[in-house]
C-alpha cells in the first residue's frame, strides 16, 4: 500500500483502477499516462491504452515494484485450489498453518492471465516493427517513493529500483493506480470488537459459512464476504466462488441445504 506521504500528493489526475472506465476518455486525451501495478487489472488497462495509443498519441508507461510481470497459474489441476473441497480443507487448518500456506499459493492468487500477457506482447511486437522506439515503457522492480507536481499538468514520480538500489524519476500527466484494495472495517463494527474472536491483531475468526466467530453464542450473526483470506485461502477473493459463498450463507439462514454445495469435481485430494 502507498506511503502516507504519497497519498497526500494524490489529486484528480490520479485514478484508481476501479474508476478507469468512467475516466478512460479524459485519460486518453492527455499527453502521457503512467500505470502503477502488476496484476490483471493493470495489464488489462495497459492493453486497452496500448490499443488506442496510435489514435490519441499519448506516451504510455507501466511500472511495478514486483519482481516482474508474471502469469497467473491457470493449469486445470492448479485451479482445483478454488474448489469447495480445498476451501474446506484450508479452513480446517490451524491459523499458523494457514498463514504459512498463503505465500505458497501466490501464483494461484496473483499474476496476469496468459492470454492477456500474450495479447500485450503481440501488440507491442507488431507496433514495434519498423520503429526505433518501443511504443511503451515497461519496468518492474520499481517502487514508487514520492510524487511531486512540477506544473499545472505534469507530475514527477520518483521510483526506487530495489534490486540494483538505484533511483530514477519519471514524468507523467495522468497516473493510474492499479495497486489493489485495502480492507477497512466500518465504524459501526467497533461496538463488537471485544465480543469477537480474533486470530491476530487485525484478523477476526470466521466460520466456513462466513459467520464471524463470537466469544459467546448469539442469535444475530454477522457475515463477512471480504477480508477473509486468512480463513478461506484462495477462495476468499475468487469471483467465481461468490455463488458458493452465498450458498453457504443462505443454507445457514434457512437452516437446511437450500442450495447444495457441489463437491466431487476434483481429481486430487488435500488430506
Structural notes for this entry:
This protein is of the alpha/beta class and 271 residues long. The protein folds into two domains: 4-71 and 110-177, FAD/NAD(P)-binding domain (3-Layer(bba) Sandwich), CATH 3.50.50.60; 78-109 and 183-254, no CATH class. Helices cover 31% and strands 15% of the residues. The protein contains nine helices and eight strands. It has helices at 4-7, 20-28, 40-56, 84-92, 95-104, 106-109, 114-128, 229-232, 242-254; strands at residues 14-16, 32-36, 59-63, 137-139, 142-149, 155-161, 166-172, 174-177. The strands form two sheets. The protein has a five-stranded parallel sheet with strand order 1-8-2-3-4, covered by helices on one side. The model has no long low-confidence stretch (mean pLDDT 92).
Helix content: 25-40%
Poorly predicted runs of 5 or more residues: none
CATH class of the largest domain: Alpha Beta
Report the sheet-strand fraction: 15-25%
Shape: globular
CATH architecture tag of the largest domain: 3-Layer(bba) Sandwich
Biggest sheet, strands in spatial order? 1-8-2-3-4
SSE succession: HEHEHEHHHHEEEEEHH
Structural class: alpha/beta
Count of the separate structural domains: 2
Task: Provide a count of the helices.
Answer: 9
The CATH homologous superfamily of the largest domain corresponds to: FAD/NAD(P)-binding domain
Radius of gyration: 22 Å
Mean pLDDT: 92
- Major β-sheet, in short? 5 strands, parallel
